[in-house]
């Protein structure tokens, strides 16, 4: 019996159309995977088995009647626990939201529901998306499926681990600076961060409002293109969502030919990046170089983006997390307090984890009177410089490629004592996120410890097709993305 | 104010925690003093970049995303109160006294 949980969306969708399998069968296969692998991996905060089977039965009916069938109808998937899902517990992996039952749906979730996809669970993450490890979840640490002593990356670590092990055929994560691409790289899957504003942020628990991007985490580029088509597009509820029509990303997938690919020397620095990664990415770039032109370019030292991102994002975090006051939802403190002010401070002191507190305080400081010019405003100015630097580069090249991360998956415990762990781990990604560019991480090999290596391809804003085409071209002639961890 | 050479003081940590409305234990104050100092020292790097002429940027090319001023359906009150239904009163959320009557 073929393992249905090993299918891609396109494969499963074909079988469903032909009646050779059902959504209930697919869903059960994924739920079986969860039963088998989840005790070792801790990728999920909530598994919605009953709800999933109900939705799967509805999808089967829809498929049978051939009514309004989409490529995602009947396909089981997971969502990072950062998306509001009505009547389903949503925690952002934070203690302060331990009992939050959303009264509404995030737009991304609504679109997936409308398409007939089947939600099997909400995945673990760094609390409030503050991290690049999934180690700072207030609940548990997700393990990397390739080596359980290691981290899956973050903040969408649960999603990455789930996709890598067939616990759902795809997932939806978010990226604020690396949170889709970095765990995709560490777990050997395909993760796409769309252009900022391409996918609605309505109903996504906010981290950095000028940075947050929901995006697909899949087994391959074709699947990512399919999911993107469903979730992308203007949303009147998100004033920062682009009105531009959604392109048929999947149908338009084609071999990339004659494109100019920029290779910034600063992103291939031997001193800062592991040798195995440089070797694998260089080899991968050569594959694309067969029919495209490789152009050495110079970009601003990516180190500056770390400082800019740290200040800008934490400032936005301090504002976005001010709403957690315990009045309307979430954690209830048992500590008595006499006044509102005392309650507010106690609630947040007890409910927030260390990382959330650290980020809120950095941001508050950077925005406070006397420091705003020196920190926040200066960071915004440098952000402008980074953005201009990339725009300049894109007048000469169609896309830029580099390794996704400077190292492969690190061991559990690596974040301790390192208050800038996340920002430093995402050094190769931050510039493109600050500038709102779309980017994809795809697997391009393994290091000597058999840990996955990811390559990041990014392009000008709204040039998702370029990114997808290049990734598609690479995956057509290589098989790294089809490899599965032993636990599978 | 601290100069850019000295780390953030405990007093400043307490002040920031006050602004952020987070009650910290004395141990946490010490811990965050160390960590914030590390972070602030690191981000000093941005001073290496010449920002002359770099105006404040927007993170998007969109401007003025307006809609028509028409009333639309909103979240019903019971839905909005759902997570605090026990403590709610007459359709309101209840909270501790805001004003200090002492």
Quick overview of this protein structure:
The complex is a heterodimer of chains A (488) and B (102). Chain A is an alpha/beta fold and 488 residues long.
Keywords:
heterodimer; A: 488 residues; alpha/beta; 11-stranded mixed β-sheet; 15 helices; 11 strands; globular; B: 102 residues; mainly alpha; 32% helix; 0% strand; disordered N terminus
Describe the structure.
The complex is a heterodimer of chains A (488) and B (102). Chain A is of the alpha/beta class and 488 residues long. Chain A contains 15 helices and eleven strands. In chain A, helix 5 packs parallel to helix 6 (181-187), helix 7 packs antiparallel against helix 15 (464-476) and helix 9 (303-320) packs across helix 11 (354-367). The mean pLDDT of chain A is 96. Chain B is mostly helical and 102 residues long. Residues 1-5 of chain B have low confidence and may be disordered. Chains A and B meet through helix 9, helix 10, helix 11 and helix 12 of A and helix 1 and helix 2 of B.
